[in-house]
Amino acid sequence: MFMMPLSFLFMWITGLLSIGILAGGIYIVWAWYVGTLLAAAWLVAGVLMLASSVAGRWMVVLMHRAGSDNPVSVRSGRQHRLSRPDGHELYVEVHGPDTGVPIVLTHGWSLDSTAWYYAKKRLSDRFRLILWDLPGVGQSSQPGDRDYSTERFAQDLRAVLELTGDRKALLLGHSIGGMTIQTFCRLFPDVVASRVAGIVLANTTHTDPTRTTIASGLVQALEKPVLVPLLYLTVWLWPVVWVMNVLSYLNGSAHISTRLVSFNGDVTRGQLDFTTRFTAKQSPAVLARGMLATFRFDETRTLASISVPVLVLIADSDRLTVPAAGQRIAATIPRAALVRIDRSGHCGIIEQERDYYDKVAQYAESLDAPSKPTAPVSKSARTKRRAAGFRRDK
After folding, report:
1. Beta-bridge mates of residue 308
2. Domain annotation for the chain: domains and CATH numbers
3. Residue 91 main-chain phi, psi, to 5 deg
4. What are the φ and ψ backbone dihedral angles of 129, each rounded to 5 degrees?
């Protein structure tokens, strides 16, 4: 699942539930064996609980529709490893023709670059895609100083951007990837002006994610007394939490949680299983440290200073970063256009991938087309204008 404050709470709930189901099944079978519980029904119940602990996900997955093109975790393309000053390495893949418009893709937290399965399929025939794993996830190593702030990510993004050569690139970021790009714009405005043709911000926020999630009042109230202690506990007990996450994946409770917080409902079996698997793969300590860093994130003041064209994509049913966050971003950035994707949740780049990548392709092509000089546009007119063929809340 995509890791935001609300989804982290669900991760702990499903993890504890998973341990309870496994422990309960073991106890019931043992009690029946030693004669404490005599009825055969107890044995059946215990066996069913143990079976669900290792294979329950199939029951959940089969409740969703079959898909003809389900994503898989594949690493291919031209692979690079970038060494960073503190000693950690970034894993980078390059796909598509060298002559294509470069698009640098930054994934969401708890994911890795394999999440761009559909981007590679839809865009790599025309564009030069540069995918990378954020520090500590996928095949990128953990930084020695354990810094997982968007400032660190933005510095790494600058290194990845060097692979685009002399041609200006389109920066595409989803969730924390979009947050990273906003920080990048604050830290490196000269690089943005000289090396970036445009930006796509998909299902992201401009401030502390606890403020732009569903039930934000409750989540903010829980931040200090519940969330922060749980995150530090995750760092200290990460092997136990990892076991909890694996059990949650195997018994299907993580699938239910992912379906509730990350999707609208049109997700296929393969898409749901593919997305849920990420949390079981990544280090819980890394995810927790990154989540703690997001509580300090706020680029609200940065938005007005972003000078390049920006396409803001929002999902109508996004529960982790509500559409209002994207609307605020688009209303504040001077050269922004807003597009809403219907029947989509936070994980729209997988659930409604065709709509997302059609919009990205159209936007990239519009930026690459010869431009004509235009008269300055007033702030009031900007909120109503059409930009590069896109209009607000399309």
Report:
1. none
2. 78-211+295-370 (3.40.50.1820)
3. -90, 130
4. -90, 130
Alpha helices in the chain (DSSP H): 5-34, 40-55, 57-61, 117-123, 150-161, 176-187, 189-195, 216-222, 228-236, 238-251, 253-262, 269-281, 284-294, 323-332, 348-351, 353-368, 379-382
User: What residue type is 143 in one-letter code?
Assistant: P
What's the rounded Cα separation, in Å, for the pair 235 and 135?
16
**Beta-ladder partners of 184:** none
Q: Tell me the mean pLDDT in the region 78-84.
A: 96
Rounded Cα distance between 70 and 388, Å, is 32
DSSP for residue 223:
I
- pLDDT at res. 390: 46
Q: Is the pLDDT of residue 371 over 50?
A: no
Q: Report the side by side order of strands in the sheet with 336-341.
A: 78-83, 89-95, 127-132, 101-106, 169-174, 196-202, 310-315, 336-341
Q: N- to C-terminal Cα distance for the chain?
A: 27
Question: Do the beta carbons of residue 176 and residue 151 sit within 8 Å?
Answer: no
Q: Please enumerate in sequence order all residues whose Cβ is within 8 A of that of 200, keeping only pairs 6 or more positions apart, or say none.
A: 170, 171, 172, 173, 310, 311, 312, 313, 360, 363
Q: Can you tell me the distance from the alpha carbon of 294 to that of 256, in angstroms, rounded to the nearest whole number?
A: 25
Residue 216 pLDDT > 70, yes or no?
yes
Q: Please say if the pLDDT value at position 52 is more than 60.
A: yes
- The DSSP string of 18-50 is HHHHHHHHHHHHHHHHHTSS--HHHHHHHHHHH
Please name the residue that has the structure tokens 């404490």.
Answer: 36
With cut-offs at 50, 70 and 90, classify the pLDDT of residue 72.
very high
DSSP class per residue in 61-103: HTTSB--SS-------SEEEEEE-TTS-EEEEEEES-TTSEEE
Tell me phi and psi for residue 313, to 5 degrees: -105, 130
